[in-house]
Amino acid sequence: MTQAKVIDGRALAAKIRGGVAEAARRLRYEKSLTPGLATILVGNDPASKVYVRGKGRACVAAGLASFERSLPTEISEAALIAEIEKLNGDDRVDGILVQLPLPRHVDPRRVIGAIDPAKDVDGFHPLNVGRLWSGLPGLVPCTPQGCVALLRTVHNDLSGAAAVVLGRSNLVGKPLAALLLASDCTVTMVHSKSRDAPAICRRADILVAATGRPRMVKADWIKPGATVIDVGTSSVALPGGGSRVVGDVDFHAACGVAGAITPVPGGVGPMTIAYLLRNTLLAACRRRGLPAPLP
Ligand code: GUN
User: How many separate domains does the chain show?
Assistant: First the structure.
């Protein structure tokens, strides 16, 4: 049985973070500029707390400034939007990230719509979504950028590749489809209403799973030699107690069929943070009309 190449997301993310740190050093010495990221966490969700803390630490490690706002679950939508407007007007802040999901009484569309599009480092504002689909420069969501960078470690040229994106979220599936299309892939989106998802997936040269359903993709969904990118991170209980994080793909079975595959953890996850830092640096430069000193 062949054994898939395991794509090392930690190593690639470290390289990108190193590039951001070097660019930040140059901006500091040459322009007296320190790009800053503000994160907003609403409520006490333990997983969200861990993610936001990780983002703040990664900023500081790369020489960026981190501003962390932690707000109570009961905060009103109007008060949350007022916080965002303060950050929109704060020149030390180049990127604003509101951790999702938000409490149910808050409409995420209105919250995301309140972020200055020039500081929207998640790339979720409708203006940036439209720019992405129109091929205009804007801020592009981090996880999809990370997926494409991982694919490019395996494929020099994505042109003409049959790419299947499993999952149609605004955070990952839809923006990733736009990026793959811009790279000249033939893109198919598979979702919960698709008929015979396994058969569609089996035609993919590139299969990206972003459904949040643990180990949904089985070995017989994968074309032999295909590249598989696993965006899922689900916590599953272990029989003996405790839990572990798994992806949307049955990793061990998939390794016998795929040509290359990302592990969970250590695949897409670290890339999301790396691109968040990169987007913050880009936003800092673009807001000031400076060229970004990035590779
Ligand atoms: N929650 C899960 N993923 C993300 C992300 O990429 N950005 C934000 N803001 N929240 C998230």
Answer: 2
Q: Do residues 165 and 248 share a domain? A: yes
Q: Flag whether 182 is in a domain.
A: yes
**1: pLDDT strictly greater than 90:** no
Range of the domain at 102: 31-117
Residues 98 and 64 reside in one and the same domain: yes
Query: Do 99 and 38 share a structural domain?
Result: yes
Which ligand 1 atom sits closest to the C-alpha of 97? 9
**Residue list, ligand 1 pocket, CB within 6 Å:** 97-100, 122, 142-143, 171, 272
Q: 101 with 162, same domain? A: no
**68, 96, 122, 272: residue to mutate for ligand 1 pocket, most atoms within 8 A of CB:** 122
Looking at the CA of residue 143, tell me the nearest atom of ligand 1.
Answer: 6
Answer yes or no: do 165 and 242 share one domain: yes
128 within a domain of the structure (yes/no): no
Tokens representing 65 are 């400034």
**Does the reported pTM lie above 0.90?**
yes
- Catalytic site residue 205? no
Residue among 14, 90, 26, 35 at smallest CA distance from 280: 35
For 70, 129, 147, 174, 245, the CA distances from 178, given in Å and listed in that order, are 33, 9, 12, 7, 28
Residue 257 C-alpha to ligand 1 middle, in angstroms? 31
pLDDT tens for residues 146-155?
999 999 999 9
Mutate to test the pocket of ligand 1, among 48, 68, 80, 99 (most ligand atoms within 8 A of CB): 99
Is 32 in a helix, a strand, or coil? coil
Using a 10 angstrom Cβ sphere, with 0-12 exposed, 13-18 middle and 19 or more buried, the burial of residue 100 is middle
Per-residue confidence (pLDDT) for residue 246, from 0 to 100: 98
Going by CA atoms, what residue is nearest to atom 9 of ligand 1?
Answer: 99
Q: What is the pLDDT of residue 295?
A: 86
Q: To the nearest whole number, what is the mean pLDDT of the chain? A: 98
